[in-house]
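Final report, Chapter 2: Outcomes

The project's central promise was a pipeline that accepts a single protein chain and returns its three-dimensional structure in a standardized token representation, suitable for archiving and comparison. That pipeline is now operational. To close this chapter, we reproduce one record exactly as it appears in the project archive, with the input sequence first and the structure output second.
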Amino acid sequence: MTQAVAEESLEVQALGTAAGARRRRYLAVAVGWLGFFAVWYASARIVGAEVRLPSPARVGREMGEILTGRTISLSFIPPSISLEPVGGAVFWENFWASILRVFAGFGTGVLIGTPLGFVMGRSTYWKNFLQSPVVVAGSIPGLTYAVMAFVVFGISFWGPVWAVGLISMPYVALNVAEGVAGVDRGLVNMSRAYGRSGGQVFRHVLVPTVTPFIFAGVRLSFSLAWKVGQLTEVFGASRGIGFQIRRNFQLFNMPAVLAWVLLFIAFMLVLERLILVRLERRLFRWRQWEREE
């Protein structure tokens, strides 16, 4: 009886500690965002020119107008620059154009980088042959890929796709190669000694070992992919978030420039935090030792 009460007390204490840590984490995130907006507001006040650095409220109103297509009137915010109406349909048209390019290019990079990584991890010859070009490809700045895409493809759908694929592929390939090279050879030999087929070894030994490396490469390359995608659209696209950024910059409409940037950043943060992070936790929930550490 006493042992049961002690165990229950420890369980309640552990739950309270976890809840307290979660509250502190949420509080830290909230304080960080409040600090960011406070610095932004103070900087806008110091600059004193909405055309150069608009206030958070001004940009927020612009974001609302872009999303809804309606003019939002707030007495404490000066009227925004509006040379032509921007409706919700315009937002979704440009938004989905950017998303399609980013995911098409990112998917291409993953499809090419994953088998390259497997080959590099399994064969010393192919590692020596491919590693240097892959590392060089990953070291090239995203701006270079954006300019090259504009020169090669002009204003088209394929320029951003090509640039995103090239910036994504090296990180996926190198991470997969490290994962394959780190497979426990003793575990592979033991599986074969017990008569397991090549497919079973691949499924139950190789894939669980390499999957964390693949996921790490995917998250890293995706964080670069959408940035390069928008940068490429600034140079060579007739639709998309990057195109709207360039267009409004040419019109000296800085509230709209920042509004388009923040809308896309907000979507990517939601995608990463609500989908990629949860997917990672679900896929690797069996790794109890990692959570304990």
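Archive annotation: Residues 73-86 have pLDDT under 50 and may be disordered.
This record, like all others produced under the grant, will remain available to the consortium after the project formally closes.
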